[in-house]
Amino acid sequence: MQHDKLEQYIQTNREAFDFGVPSLKVWAEIDSALEAKKGKVRHLRRVVGIAATVAFLLVSGGVIGSFFTKNTNATELASLETIDPELAKIEAYYQGQFNQKYKVLASVPHDESIDQDIEQIDASMEELRLALVNAPAGSQQRIVENLIRTYQLKVQVLERVLQRLQSGEDTITKPKDDEKKISI
User: Fold this and answer.
1) CA distance 65 to 131
2) Is the same domain home to 153 and 93?
3) Residue 137 near residue 115 (C-beta atoms within 8 A)
4) How far apart are CA 108 and CA 160, in angstroms?
5) pTM
6) Closest to 155 (Cα-Cα) out of 112, 108, 104, 86
7) What is the DSSP string of 81-120?
8) Residue 133: other Cβ atoms inside 10 A
9) Each residue of 105-163: pLDDT tens digit?
């Protein structure tokens, strides 16, 4: 029944509804309500933007920091002790052999190219150590074997140089036809 009275009232006053204009006070209240919502949205956007910026800076700083930490500590991480203590003993043995033979070489006059060759071998060993850090678990053994072979090569090179120096041969700077340059 009430619904009928409302419909009847709207039908009888239809023309008043079509030409009626709300007062300025009503428009002012509507406007202030809309401004309040815009202010909340703007404030929320600003807070979310600041939070996103802070999160981005923290994540990018962490990624960059871990990259530099990984590169600066790569040699320490690549120690053979972390992979296999037995291999670390082998490394220590060959390093001791090399140091002993290099002391003998350093005490006699020799060609500078020998030192340059040893530096090249050391550079390739450092590359192997870096590869060892980044290698998947299955390929670490192969890299370790290459590292051990490189130690053996270093010692063999020094032994050969010392033999020639002790025998009085001056063929270190002038290789024979049957010798080839060793490159790693």
Assistant:
1) 20
2) yes
3) no
4) 14
5) 0.46
6) 104
7) HHH-HHHHHHHHHHHHHHHHHHHHHHTS---HHHHHHHHH
8) 18
9) 788 777 778 888 888 888 888 888 778 777 777 777 787 788 888 888 888 888 888 88
> Torsion angle, CA of 39/42/46/49, rounded to 10 degrees?
160
Cβ pair 80, 87 in contact under 8 A: yes
pLDDT tens for 41-50 read 677 778 888 8
Question: How many angstroms separate the most distant Cα atoms in the chain?
Answer: 130
Mark whether 128 and 105 lie in a shared domain.
yes
Q: Supply φ then ψ for residue 20, to 5 degrees.
A: -75, 145
Q: How far apart are CA 164 and CA 170, in angstroms?
A: 7
Q: Are residues 155 and 93 in the same domain?
A: yes
Q: Is the dihedral of CA 183, 113, 120, 151 positive or negative?
A: positive
Can you give the residue range of the structural domain that contains 55? 20-72
